[in-house]
């Protein structure tokens, strides 16, 4: 199963200058819980936005840079090759960035979205979720609090 996982603002903003636009500790916890033990597929810029590789996950990085070889990662030059190197019988997660999401939304089976109830200025955006194709199967609202500056919801969509 191919799952896209992303935190997305009301205006589909994802980030600016290769940085997240918000800090939501509960979203980080959910991301860790869902992706630990799995293959995670990402673009090079997304990988470089992390301070270090994420523990207990197999990193598959898509890049056109021929001499790019971060230690302990699988490097490929296309989304198709990234999916091909992952085990077929387990869930894999596509974690960004914007261009990788645009390429993968046509083939994904599931979307695990954290919808941030705010709009942001951004340079990277998530593709529109077409409700003729995707069905919202679960949603859990989290109001802002002392650790979260914005209301947000965890949403799961399955392809119809």
Question: How far apart are the first and last residues' alpha carbons, in Å?
Answer: 14 Å
Mean pLDDT across all residues, rounded?
A: 96
Q: What's the number of domains?
A: 1
Low-pLDDT segments? none
CATH architecture: 3-Layer(aba) Sandwich
* Strand tally: 11
Strand order of the largest sheet: 6-5-4-7-1-8-11-10
Quaternary structure: single chain
Order of helices and strands: EEEHEHEEHEHEEEE
Give a short account of the largest sheet. 8 strands, mixed
Describe the structure.
With 160 residues, the protein is α/β, with parallel strands linked by helices. It has one domain (2-146): 3-Layer(aba) Sandwich (Dihydrofolate Reductase, subunit A), CATH 3.40.430.10. Helices cover 18% and strands 35% of the residues. The protein has helices at residues 25-35, 44-48, 79-84, 98-104, and strands at residues 2-9, 13-16, 19-20, 39-43, 58-62, 74-76, 92-94, 110-116, 124-125, 134-142, 152-159. The chain has an eight-stranded mixed sheet with strand order 6-5-4-7-1-8-11-10. Strands 3-2-9 form a three-stranded antiparallel sheet, with no helix packed on it. Strand 4, helix 2 (44-48) and strand 5 form a beta-alpha-beta unit. The longest helix has 11 residues, at 25-35.
Record the SSE blueprint.
Blueprint: E1 2-9, E2 13-16, E3 19-20, H1 25-35, E4 39-43, H2 44-48, E5 58-62, E6 74-76, H3 79-84, E7 92-94, H4 98-104, E8 110-116, E9 124-125, E10 134-142, E11 152-159
Parallel strand pairs: 1-7, 1-8, 4-5, 4-7, 5-6
Antiparallel strand pairs: 2-3, 2-9, 8-11, 10-11
